[in-house]
Queue: 2 jobs
Job 1
Amino acid sequence: MSAPALQLAPDVADPSEPGHPGGDPVDRPAADAEACLLSALMQLREREQIAVILANVVPADFDDAVHGALYRIVAGMLGRGLPADFPMVAHEIDARPDTDAHHRVPLRRRLVRIVDATAYPERGAHYAKAVVAQSLRRSTAIAGNALTEAAAGAIATDDLYAYMCELGRAQRDHHHRYATLSTATGRGQDR
């Protein structure tokens, strides 16, 4: 017999919770683009906007691995034509506990926090753009560091150019997803 849809597990220290040692006291779901995107996506009913988000956001765009796992669940449900509101996502977590690398307890705990994000569903593409922009900045820094290490001798000289091109193509594709979301939000690319 499964637990009620949104029953919390026993208290376990969560480093993202306010007041946790090392946690940021101003970290609130409403100020987190990742949480807001998930909240909006679970409330959004406009199929065209859902399609744009699902085509341009990938789980790896999420800095928080639990958010990425929840996005994978929500996107999978929407992709199969299933409703993906809060109770149905909780049910999916319980019904398929082995479908993700994360145990259901952290997924359900984070889902409850995301319910509190009070995102505006009509802003889903804007939240998606913010998530992809943050991801693009992180991946650009990682690519820059990788290229610096390669130039310092981690890659053979004959392979440096090909490696640089490979990193550049990955960044170009990432930027293309960001640009698509910029167009979908009716705004040009931000700084």
Job 2
Amino acid sequence: MTTPPSVCPPPLPPTPPLPYGQRRPRPARTVAIGALVLVLLAGAAVWWLTRDDDSSPLAGRPRVTDTAAGLSYAVPEGWKSNDGKSLIQAFTSSITMKGPDGHGGAVVLAGRGGPVDESTLRQRTETAARSNAEFFYPDGKSTVEESRATKVSGRSAYTVVLSTRDDSGRAGRLRLTIVAKSSDRSAFLLGVTESPEQPANREVDAVLAGAAVV
């Protein structure tokens, strides 16, 4: 687990969802995402939901309106929303999906951060994505599938997609979008799935693509 840089840390902390300073034992790494999904599902609750009435792939689905992060995003069928109470401070809400056999789960996490200048948005997003890939897939490798500028409700944003594999051969996929909301705030959505081939990847992509600033 990496140490946060002393100057201008990325909006998504390099220390992923564990209390600061805590190291995850190596034997637990093969169930990192699955355990996270189970914990979040155990505390899942119907939060502030609205309906998605646009023409996106998730049109008509309930939406989480996360006022802390300042983002709204859809909840795909079969996913559960969480009010953020079981999350560390870096995250403000989440939705989770448990795989049909108890494996291959997925999670989307929202959060807020400090200011991000548009000129450094790419670097900050790529750094944060790789830091989280190192947490979920320690001692492994990640490959950039996508790295591009985008817009979320007209605000400058950047999306990075990584395919990941740890030293045991366990594969997964991570998608991160950081939004430069204002001169003093940013927000992010992080999606992680346990298998790069499972249908949940399309749902994670749709959730992040359909996000809106509130």
